[in-house]
Amino acid sequence: MKPERVEELLWERADGTITPDELAELEAFLTKHPESKDLDREISRLAGLLTPRDEVAPPAALRERIDRALATATPPDQEKHTPRAARPHRWDDRWPARLLPVAASLVLGVAIGYLLHPETTDQIDGPQAAGAMRTTTATAETAPAIVDLGADTGRVVASRVGTDLVIDIGLVREVALRLELEAEDGEIRLTRMIHSADGPSETNLEDAKLTVRLRGPGTQRIRVALSEEASRVLFRATADGTMVIERWIE
Amino acid sequence: MLVEACLRGERRAFDELVDRYEGPLFNAAFRITGSVEDAMDATQAAFVNAYEKLHTFDPTYRFFSWIYRIVVNQALNVVGRRRTETELDSDTPTETSNPEVAFGEAEVTGFLRQALLELAPKYRMVVILKHLEGCSYREIGELLDIPEKTVKSRLFTARQRMRVILTERGFAP
Question: Which of A22, A64, A195, B69 could connect to A220 by a Cys-Cys bridge, CB 3.0–4.6 Å?
Fold first, then answer.
């Protein structure tokens, strides 16, 4: 039995979800391999520590505190809110098998188009709308996530290109931008960074999460490769400490 | 929908959300912080944060899932700040040959929280939901909007890492 399987069965036993057959399999293994007793004890001990606790009634003072804090809080910005019509389905649910070749052709078309137009930093469009920061989100899985920071600030566009994710950033003034990409599963690998940003840039890749901090003005293109399991990525952007977008890119 | 009403400027709609989720969120915070005062701070901060950022909420997801993640992060921030303050004040034991003797209940809870803090958020969340909240795989999947299979694989990785972290800290059988 593989070590992962032993550990899985030990946890299932601790959770009380192990089947009689699995239990027999596990006990036979433990008898045969006494060296696994340490792992058995470790897991039993950790499982014993990680136990749900009883519900606690919140103190009455909590509600008063929340009400007081909300009374002085800044109301949500209605103008920045973009209501969505319907939740996008997962790719598998949405595309019947007969349409998959069509979808594949489209993806191929996009890929060819991309190859015919090699990456240049000037592909980043300029800001399109004046005024306050505006977040545009799309309902289709492959549509880009666009963060329009306003004409005086710039724009961020995150697009899925095959198994890669490309983020174009164009900043026209001094602004501290923090971008986070976190794969739900699988891995993220930073493959390319092209930048003309004047300000400093810092990247940190840890545990399927990429964080990029940069300061405008300037342009930047970041390209990351996603492993097969990374079916979707959480894209989050913060400009000068204010979160401007948080959404899944399928 | 309450969130939509709130975004239209109906402040009382948010009060209804507070009525509905104050208890579960306070409990989640209390399980993480282990302190009523800290849990109150985290719950209050979560509601204020959610209110001020309500326009960033994607209504195609469950509001409770969204605010639940906020409160968990607030609670972990409180714990993180407290841990830093404690470390500045005194030396925390990191190694011992006899953990059974060396660690009392408070320390055990502290070590668990520390191990939780060292997990990436996506792993931390499944451990909290499974073990501290007592949610089933299905409930966790619904709450985090991920398949049950993913819940299981994340939980497996999370527990493995926690075991390693606790062993490295000298907290092992």
Answer: A195
Q: How far is A246 from chain B (nearest CA, A)?
A: 7
Buried residues in B21-43 as b, exposed as e (16+ CB within 10 A): bbebbbbbbbbbbbbbebbbbbb
Residues in chain B with CB shorter than 8 Å from the CB of A67 are 15, 18
| Residues of chain B contacting residue A83, judged by C-beta atoms under 8 Å apart | 4, 59
**Confidence bin at B171 (pLDDT 50/70/90):** low
- Nearest-CA distance from B39 to chain A in Å? 9
More confident residue, A154 or A95: A154
Provide the 3-class DSSP secondary structure of residue A77.
coil
Cross-chain Cβ contact A76/B133 below 8 Å: no
The helix/strand/coil state of B13 is helix
- Read off the pLDDT of residues A132-161 as tens digits, 9 standing for 90 and up: 334 434 333 356 777 777 777 788 888 777
Interface pTM, i.e. ipTM: 0.71
Contact B22 A62 (CB under 8 A): yes
A 43-62: CB under 8 A from B: 43, 45-46, 49-53, 55-59, 61-62
Specify which of A54-63, A136-145, A176-185, B76-85 reaches the highest per-range mean pLDDT.
A54-63
Residues of chain A found within 8 Å of residue B23, distances taken between Cβ atoms: 55, 57-58
Cα–Cα distances (Å) from A55 to A33, A52, B69, B120, B126, in that order, read 41, 9, 19, 26, 19
Spatial separation of the C-alpha atoms in residues A48 and A41, rounded to whole Å = 10
Q: What is the pLDDT of residues B29-56, one digit of tens each?
A: 887 777 889 899 999 999 999 999 998 8
* CB spacing of A69 vs B48 below 8 angstroms: yes
Q: Is A131 left (phi over 0), alpha (psi -120 to 50) or beta?
A: left
pTM of the model: 0.47
What span, in angstroms and rounded, lies between the C-alpha atoms of A98 and A173? Answer: 48
Q: Which residues contact B123 (CB under 8 A, 6 or more apart)?
A: B154, B157, B158, B161
User: Among residues B122, B116, B124, which one has the least CA distance to residue B169?
Assistant: B116
Which residue is closest to B44 within chain A, CA to CA? A66
Identify all chain B residues contacting A45, using CB atoms and an 8 Å cutoff.
173
Name which of B18, B30, B167 is nearest A56 (Cβ-Cβ). Answer: B30
Question: Could you give the maximum distance between any two Cα atoms of chain A, in Å?
Answer: 72
Assign B107 a pLDDT band (cuts: 50, 70, 90). Answer: low
- The structure tokens listed for B32 are 């993480």
